[in-house]
Amino acid sequence: MFSSTAFDYINVLDKAADASWLRENTLANNLANASTPDYKRYDVDFQSLLEMELTDSKYNRSLNSKIHDIHLDHLTATAQMDMAKENYSYRADGNNVDIHTENVELASEQIRYSALTDSITQEFTRMRTAMGR
Question: pTM (2 decimals)?
């Protein structure tokens, strides 16, 4: 059986892009509910979860080996469940969405998503070039 790790990096980028897309949708939902009384903002913290998995002390190998050992589907599922509801509110109606903060976070996430999809495209271009196509 032929085994290759050629797509490991692309798979990591793909899961990161999925998580970024999930966060974009969550932030957009917060903005859509900015005037809903008692609505509490949600967020997805996939980045911290991925960093924690990559720096876990049980891994003493290179970054590539660490990425190969990570259960990416588990990370994405955990990120979906880890949509922490912020309980504070500084508004009289109980809503805690700050439109300015949400817009900045959304713009930042859109840039991250764009960078991830560009990286995926570049990896496929490199592979196509290496195959002589």
Answer: 0.71
127 touches 17 (CB < 8 A):
no
Residue spans of alpha helices (H) in 33-92: 46-54, 63-69, 72-81
Output the six-digit token pair for 100.
Answer: 């300015």
Looking at residue 1, its pLDDT comes to 42
Question: What token pair was written down for 62?
Answer: 């290179």
What letter does residue 84 receive in the DSSP assignment?
Answer: E
pLDDT digits (tens, 9 = 90+) for 48-93: 766 666 665 444 444 445 444 545 555 555 555 445 556 677 788 9
Place of tokens 């504070």: 88
DSSP state of 43: E
Residue indicated by tokens 């009289």: 92
CB of 54 closer than 8 Å to CB of 67: yes
